[in-house]
Amino acid sequence: MGTSAQTVLGMVEGGSLGFTLPHEHLVFDGTSIFAEPSISSEKCMAHAPLGLDILSWLRYHPYENLDNVRMLDEDEATAELLRFLKAGGSTVVDVTIPGIGRDPEALCRISRMTGVNIVMGTGLYTEPSLTQRQRDMTVDEMASLFINEIRVGVGTSGIRAGIIGEIGCNWPVAPTEVKAVHAAAMAQQETGASISLHPGRNSEAPFELAETLKNAGADLSRVLFCHTDARLRDPFDRMRLADMGCVLEYDLWGWEGHFPSYWTSDDYMDLPNDTDRIYEVMSLMEQGYGRQVVISHDICVRSRRVCWGGWGYMHIPTYVVPMMRKRGMTEEQVRQLTVETPRKLLSFL
Ligand SMILES: [Zn+2]
């Protein structure tokens, strides 16, 4: 495995990545995850402009307002990322891919404006978010697209991806998504890049996907399972996934249980709060899985940004790390979580 990582502005030595958030979104079009409110009297909220009057409602209905799920303002993203830089951060992985509005040129501009390293993803998001043309692609076509975006760049832009994902899967996994998972395994074997995988909302989803990846020849030690804090609420399940060699990504820091229990009609999930997350991560460390955990915020709605009353990309370095230290995490453990494991996962050239 190489020692360099690939950012939107070119290759950098893995050792210079520093404090890294492995799962964020800077410019993001969540139109495909937008859901019209199911209650008649709340339907007017769907198209209201983001503002103080709806912020409270948004805490439980983050995906039911179009303005909230469309993070299209590049200047807003730049200002928010500067807060992360000021808090000591230095690298962000933007796992936004086709289906949720990836914008490589904007990522380059934001990186230049802030000085923060940005690693971009390649891949395809969930089946409903894709065009018919994308759904019709064969596994080989998908794999060569991903490989090309890592080696040559997106289209003719020359801007290269540095990670595969977040590959988006629903539960049960849709046919296009199965193809994308196989293609991700092929692209990983060809390039050495890590895979970031978003499993559907079911505790069995990560295991089924891990099996699929393993059978397709993927290196599970370079597969980050997104949203572990929401998907795997049973400690035994977390150990089971770690025992398969996978990386557990706790990427919902700052979501303190504000979550719509009726997000979809038959599907909901429980969320821990940050204190629970700290104890869960420490317990994984005590059991010897400390090198298989990474942490991030997965900011994909504007209301989670500081300018709209949220915690922003600075939450982990500003508030979470000091809490970790107070609860007994050593400097070495904090560094492993925020610097060393991300460096290892992003270095492949
Ligand atoms: Zn995400």
Account of the protein in words:
This protein is 39% helix and 13% strand. With 349 residues, the protein is α/β, with parallel strands linked by helices. The protein has one domain (4-346): TIM Barrel. It has an eight-stranded parallel β-sheet with strand order 3-6-7-8-9-10-11-12, with helices on both faces. Strands 1-2 form a two-stranded antiparallel ribbon. A hairpin with a 2-residue loop joins strand 1 (4-7) and strand 2 (10-13). Helix 7 packs across helix 8 (205-215). It is globular.
- Going by CATH, the architecture would be Alpha-Beta Barrel
Low-confidence stretches: none
Mean pLDDT: 95
* CATH homologous superfamily descriptor: Metal-dependent hydrolases
Distance between the termini: 7 Å
Compile the SSE list and pairings:
Elements lengths: L3 E4 L2 E4 L6 E5 L3 E2 L22 H9 L5 H4 E2 L2 H13 L4 E4 L9 H11 L2 E6 L9 H4 L3 H13 L11 E6 L6 H17 L3 E4 L6 H11 L7 E3 L2 H4 L3 H9 L3 E4 L23 H13 L6 E3 L19 H12 L4 H16 L3
Parallel strand pairs: 3-6, 6-7, 7-8, 8-9, 9-10, 10-11, 11-12
Antiparallel strand pairs: 1-2, 4-5
Helix pairs in contact: 3-4, 6-7, 7-8
This protein binds zinc ion (ZN).
Zinc ion binds next to loops.
